[in-house]
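Handout, page 2. Input:
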Amino acid sequence: MGRYYPGLTILCSLISSHGMAAALDQSGQSLLPFLESGHYFEASITAADPEVSGHTLGTRPDLVNSGVKDYSTDNISQNFQYYSAALKLQLKPEFSFGILYDQPFGVDLQYPLKDNGSFSDPKLSKQGTQINVDSQHLSLVLGYQPFKNFNLYAGPAFQTIKGQVSLHGLVYADLDGYNAVFKEDAAIGWLAGFAYQIPDFALKAALTYHSTIDHKINGSENVLGTPLLLADETKTKISTPQSMNLDFQTTLTVSTLLYTNIRWVNWKDFVIRPAQFGALSERVTATMSDGTYRGGFNLDDYQKDQWSATVGVAKKWTPQWSGAFDLGWDSGTGNPASIFNPTKGYWGVGLALQYNPAPDYFISGGVKYFWLGDVTTQDGTYDLPLPGVSEASKVGEFDDNHAIGYGLKIGYHF
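Output:
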């Protein structure tokens, strides 16, 4: 029976992509390739085609240029793709080693240039608000199997991250025209976990922890090209969040698997506050409060941790062909949400198909449709300890949005 299920377990990991997850979460940081039997290699590409649009709140005419009746943003999400690969070696019956590469965090949003001027500047800079974040992550994992069905694993993780932010539009008031470029930075973290497997019944349960990784990034900040010199030059601290993955699967029949993944990401403790932006925001809050509050606010942060879950069924039809169907849910990170992440989680449904020309290698592909959660967006001042500021910070509504994700994977047991 054990030889009948490996292809199905790989198919499950393909369709459970996190391409439209909350905040900057992108790949889902799966360790499942490391739990494959024997020597194993895989490579995959995931692409997403999102449609995310909204409008400035009708109750905020101060955030729209006079004489303009179109309050819409048009589509702000760019098509994107990311890659992953994994190599697992069974060095001895009790020792295994793995190298896993993925791109765990990322975002690519660009608000189009609009005459309403809410999230763009059609007159001076002729640019729209945009944010772009890219990351790369390489994990080295050593596994120890003290007895047949139990696996302990841990190892270091090497991560790079870089980004660019531009704020344009009436919603930013005194921060309109702010730009920042964060150069690529590298830092080290770690992961650890354990798994229990009974291959003859395709039973697998795994719990994996990824640590916070602290970056100190060199960057440049300006307003409409004029460098900001309001504070001492310091590196911007960005800590990518700690997370936990729980994976489980078991047989329903001799040719059918039930599988699930639950993921937690600690976005509530995530903060970006560059030095010059922080100093400028302190001046803004001092003016807003007539000097009673000078604490400023963050460029980006999130109200709640992210939870996501996937449950699905995989079916082997013939020795060469298998299929899978799953349902997915993501909690989002709170409502109202950041302008940089104007959705509140999702519900998703996916289909995948796999072809095994021979028992030791395969190619699989999948598609997933996401219904993105409706959300109100806020300009960053939502949590300030000032009367009425939480309501005044709400600037937009984003609803009835969706996305389509695609995945393609090849794998080889050797």
